[in-house]
Amino acid sequence: MAKPEGYRKAIRLMDLADRFGLPVITLVDTPGAFPGMDAEERGQAEAIARSTERCLSLGVPMIALIAGEGGSGGAVALAAANRVLMLEHSIYSVISPEGCASILWRSASRAAEAAEAMKITAGELLNLRVIDRIVYEPAGGAHRDHETTIKRVGVAIGAELAGLSALSPAALRAERRTKYLQIGRMRD
Fold first, then answer.
1. Sign of the C-alpha dihedral computed for residues 131, 134, 137 and 140 taken in this order
2. How far apart are CA 175 and CA 165, in angstroms?
3. Residue 188 in this model has a pLDDT that exceeds 60
4. Distance in angstroms (rounded) separating the CA atoms of residues 171 and 61
5. How many Å apart are CA 76 and CA 103, to the nearest integer?
6. Which of 34, 71, 73, 125 could form a disulfide with 130 if both were Cys (CB 3.0 to 4.6 A apart)?
7. Are 87 and 67 within 8 A, CB to CB?
């Protein structure tokens, strides 16, 4: 769970990548940003907003991989990318199922129902066009065969980079902006 300093470091690294024309690859595995009072006092919300803004303004290709859990604005701040890939058994959501159930039904006991309604799995998010590609895991899950998982992630990232490398900085930014403005809109 990143703190404001972590998001600020990510911004500095994105700035360097942009300056030197290097693609940005993020590996996201977090339930969200650190929720402590001290993080809020040091500007957690502002750091998340600036990180998201920096992702969207990059003139180089950006690819994010959701590996495990991508939760809340803390994940989006590192995943507002041209391409979002997701390991097959990962989840990606704006709030935890427990948090959603607590808000909607005043009971975290309905988390399973909330998770189903939220559509947080890789297959559902691909159908909704929130993510762009599923990286299929070896039998038993990614943790059972690290080598195969790493190879599959590498192939997927390489394929996405090859497709993005021909785009100009302006086209990369425009594509990213359009992608995020379309999330949640009804499409044909």
1. positive
2. 13
3. no
4. 10
5. 21
6. 125
7. yes
CA–CA separation, 80 vs 84, rounded Å? Answer: 8
Query: What distance in Å separates the CA atoms of residue 97 and residue 159, rounded to the nearest whole number?
Result: 33
Question: Is 109 in contact with 83 (CB distance < 8 Å)?
Answer: no
Q: Which residues of 115-125 are buried (b: 16+ CB within 10 A; e: fewer)?
A: beebebbbeeb
Which SS3 state, helix, strand or coil, does residue 100 take? helix
Give the pLDDT band of residue 11 (cuts 50, 70, 90). very high
At 3 the pLDDT is: 86
Summarize the confidence of residues 63-74 as an average pLDDT: 92
Instruction: Determine how β-strand 83-87 pairs with β-strand 62-71.
Output: parallel
Report pTM: 0.91
Strand partners, 25: 63
Q: pLDDT tens digit string along 100-159? A: 999 999 999 999 999 999 999 999 999 999 999 999 999 999 999 999 999 999 999 999
Category of 42 on φ-ψ map: left (φ > 0), alpha (ψ -120 to 50) or beta: alpha
Only one residue has tokens 């992608």, namely 179
Q: How many residues does the chain have?
A: 188
Structural contact between residues 27 and 65, judged by C-beta atoms closer than 8 angstroms: yes
Q: Radius of gyration (Cα) for the chain, nearest Å?
A: 17
Give helix then strand counts, H and E, for the chain.
9, 5
